[in-house]
Amino acid sequence: MLTCRKTYFDIPFAHRQHLHDGHCAYVHGHNWDISVTFACDQPDENGFVVDFGKLKFIKKWLDDNFDHACLFSKDDPLRDKLVNAAPEAWKIYIVEKCCCEGIARHLYGIFGKLVASETGGRVRVVSVEVSEDKKNTAKYSE
Ligand SMILES: [Zn+2]
């Protein structure tokens, strides 16, 4: 199996860990790095697993959905109250769990489908890593 990895650096977005017993319960932001590892059995005619220049659909997805957004866990009891107070101040994105681990798992599902579609099934996503401020990293793979 051949693999390659692409990293998108310094994507700014916020989140809040509503169940956390410390300061992570407050809305706060990080610069996030998101790495996607791709695999294939047969490389393309260039010998590539995936052509890094043809991954703009992933960058676009991140720009459209995460860049300058605030991620909330789907069971956050204050989300609607916060957002409805000033809807124009928020670009929200809802995930099951908005920690690094939950975001990695969520993106694995999203990018797995996108990559399979864009490559006709030749390439698959084998892992997604998510880092907060280059310090704390979680990885999801099956
Ligand atoms: Zn945080």
Q: Which key features would you list for this structure?
A:
6-stranded mixed sheet; 142 residues; alpha/beta; elongated; Tetrahydropterin Synthase, Chain A
What does this structure look like?
By secondary structure, the protein is an alpha/beta fold. It has a single domain (2-141), classed as Tetrahydropterin Synthase, Chain A (2-Layer Sandwich), CATH 3.30.479.10. Helix content is 25%, strand content 35%. It contains 3 helices and 6 strands; from the N terminus they run ββαβαβαββ. It has helices spanning 56-65, 79-85, 100-118, and strands at residues 2-15, 28-40, 70-73, 92-95, 124-132, 136-141. The chain has a 6-stranded mixed beta sheet with strand order 4-3-1-2-5-6. Strand 3, helix 2 (79-85) and strand 4 (92-95) form a beta-alpha-beta unit. The longest helix is centred in the last third of the chain and has 19 residues, at 100-118. The chain is elongated and about 55 Å long. The mean pLDDT is 97. It binds zinc ion (ZN).
